[in-house]
Write the structure tokens for this entry.
Amino acid sequence: MKTKTSFTCSECGYISPKWVGKCPNCEAWNTFSETAKETSRIKGRVRVEPKDVKKLTIKESSKSAKRIPLTMEEANRVLGGGILEGSITLLTGEPGIGKSTLTIQICDQIAALDKKVLYISGEESQHQIAGRAKRLGIDTDKLLFLAETNSETILESIKKEKPDFVVIDSVQVLFSHDIQSTSGSISQVRYAAELFMEFAKTTNTPVVLIGHVTKDGNLAGPRVLEHLVDTVLYLEGDRFHQFRILRSQKNRFGSTNEIGIFEMGEKGLVEVSNPSAQFLEGRKEHAIGSAITVTLEGTRPILIEVQALANITPFGYPKRTATGYDVNRMQLLISVLQKYAKTNLSNQDIFVNVVGGMKIKDPSCDLGVLMAIASSFLQKTIPSDTCYIGEVGLSGEIRAVSQLDKRVKEAKKLGFKNVVTPAQVKDIVSAVRAL
Ligand code: TYD
Ligand code: MG
């Protein structure tokens, strides 16, 4: 039988017969690695029989699969109302962000419903996991544990044990002797995911796979598994800030529009049910270079403080950096401000920071960011009961945003009397002049 070596891109799974430096599919550099030898197909060897097709209708009783509700409402919302039986979920995020912490807390909540929960770790020892669970106040007697990295051994163990819920931490450390590549490689990761998916579907057991992503948000894993699993959850945030956001990137059984907000504390992840109030906590009244805006995360409006610092540059080339905000978008706002509001920012270093470690992508925050920059440059304070909503266009106009009513309502609820919206102020010149 013929054998063939192929090379696979760790970003998108593209297969090439020879090694290439740049992926012709996703254009990523240096992502190809040698994958398992594939046996070439031999035509006509296997005979297949046709199967009977049937009507799409299903029986009433099996229409809605059962969900296991969690006590964390924030997590329930993202999942679409709890963990669906027989579903396979991939939880990803940067190392150290809190994936293991979140899953052990979920395990505890499921075990409290008198369900058999099995936590499988290939990364940490029993001692480490138990230590963490204890610190979190979890009853470790209620959880089952297995330290293993061999995919087949894990599969046989869970088949034997028959738990109601399984967590595998993490998919990157799994390996199978049937696959001739190292653990963490595309073929190992994909093979393991397929194995556990089959298990989840045939036994109706929900499985959560944990997978790490690297700094740039990719890795052999999450990307190639996305189409396989039912749900992909991202745990995001800044390791040095307390806030964590659980976001669903894909959800076959719910909306991908919802997020869950948590705070990492001594007792693990704690739900934040009133994020606006939390994000504004500790805000200095009448500060220069600080503006409040409203971002829409899923269906929820959240008030956020944006800080800016404009300072004369000691070098010829001004420095512009942004934390939690797209630096190119910030450059654009600076350009607009410079051209239309007659502010000479060409010799200014400008820094923008979104408070609380949140990342904002919503264009309706443009005006808030722009006003924070203007406030710092002009050394004028923004009244602490003022908040800005609006997208900034290239000719300095303030454009309408989606779901304005919802945003305004949230701002009013938190005591903002003056909510500047595109309906009131048509261009940035008048907004800046009002400072
Ligand atoms: P962890 O869940 O191990 O991250 P991951 O599995 O995503 O790699 O969490 C790691 C960080 O969380 C670690 O730096 C310590 C912090 N942490 C807390 O702040 N409070 C806690 O109660 C726990 C368990 C962890
Ligand atoms: Mg971990």
